[in-house]
Amino acid sequence: MQTAIAFARQQLGDRYLLGGSGPDAWDCSGLTKAAYAAAGVYIGTHSATNQYNTMASQGRLVSFSNVQVGDLVFWGGGGDYYHVAIYVGGGQVLEAPDVGKPVRIHAIWSPGDVASYVGRPTG
């Protein structure tokens, strides 16, 4: 988990690009996939929905109320997830947010859209 977070931190300030998977431009699931791949952990394909479903199929979903540093936070629901980020503590996530916004650490936004479960890729 620390390796994944360290990798993601190295991307801070990189630009957002829909479909981006590095090395200098990312979208949300491209960043999370690459960060955990750097740690040797497969979390799913380049898709927030697929990453959620991969965590579910591996029995790695945990209630959001028990979120820990390194967990994957998802936005959406009903089988359709439109955003994923890495929880870094203190109510903040490391994310590749959207067009015009670089990779950043930011307070969890739109909490009403946050999924009830987070993915815990390790541990």
TrEMBL record:
UniProt-listed Gene3D superfamilies: endopeptidase domain like (from Nostoc punctiforme)
Residue ranges of every copy of the NlpC/P60 domain listed in the record: 1-123
Pfam families: NLPC_P60
Hydrolase in keyword set: yes
Keyword ATP-binding tagged: no
InterPro entries the UniProt entry points to: NLP_P60_dom (IPR000064), Papain-like_cys_pep_sf (IPR038765), PG_Endopeptidase_C40 (IPR051794)
Keywords associated with the record: Hydrolase, Protease, Thiol protease
Protein family according to the UniProt entry: Belongs to the peptidase C40 family.
Protein's UniProt name: C40 family peptidase
Organism for this UniProt entry: Cryobacterium breve
